[in-house]
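Dear colleague,

Thank you for sharing your sequence with our group. We've completed the structure prediction you requested, and as agreed, I am returning the results in plain text so they can be pasted directly into your records. Please verify that the sequence below matches your submission; if there's any discrepancy, let me know and we will rerun it promptly.
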Amino acid sequence: MSFDTLGLSAELLRAIDEQGYNEPTPIQRKAIPIIMDGKDVMAGAQTGTGKTAGFTLPLLQRLSANPIKNGRRPVRALVLTPTRELAAQVGASVDTYGRHLPLKSAVIFGGVKINPQIAKLRQGVDILVATPGRLLDHASQKTVDLSQVEILVLDEADRMLDMGFIHDIRKLLAMLPKNGARQNLLFSATFSGEIKQLANRLLNQPELIEVARQNATADRIKQVVHPVDKLRKRELLSHLIGSQNWRQVLVFTRTKHGANRLAQQLEKDGLSAAAIHGNKSQGARTRALAGFKRGEVRVLVATDIAARGLDIDQLPHVVNFELPNVPEDYVHRIGRTGRAGNEGEAVSLV
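Please find the predicted structure tokens below.
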């Protein structure tokens, strides 16, 4: 099955072809036609299965098929994400697939200056990708109008609830057109009771799409456990990286302090390392991630804030230096590898 059987426009097919993609993934095959029909969707898919394109492509198609004829561009599609990294990733996907369409998009999140975001919003934006907190800041300053949103996407909805965004989401929903006047898409890698409650309030007779067992790990990821004394974990990690010549490794710790300390210890072992977590400025996080993607940083040590939204092509190795407290976070952590049909290995030091 190819993308041109899904009813996508020539402009979107051209952008897909330029990315080198030939066949849609299972979530894309199921979601794209339903979303293009204007139906609400509750979708569950493992991370790394192409779900971002699964909602981005039909969203772009629907907006471009009904352009605003004149006047200022209102926000017509709103994508809410839990983290800055995921917002940036979704924004890049919108830019990539919408490059041949006359639509404008913007990405707004906290940790950076608000004035450039205000200037971008004033120019008019069709598609807005945002984290809830910063979007509420804009709403309180009256720099964004959400009263004409036609399509709402909640991406990684389970993570948003885990991070305590439910009250922010409720405030934002009150600013949108009434439920019957907009299309709602909820994407979540896991379906908790809370997610189902949110879906019941948000979605109108949704189509349920699942492409894997709930809370399941991807088949292409080899999972390995190394029993080890707590005091020798760092020593074993350095040995594994060095002896097996791992060139790009994402390592998860439970705490920000633990991430900083481990990165410093790995540097002393002669391995280029950087830490990424919530206390780091957005600039520092962006630089660390860019260095990791370029291969200048061999080991990126992260807390669970990085378990969603980090999309690194062909990342071969993920290490749980410490296992997460929440079982679902294990699924998301190791889902950073084995993406887009590639093989991956997840190692846990226990």
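Summary note from our side: The chain has a mean pLDDT of 88.

Kind regards,
the structure core
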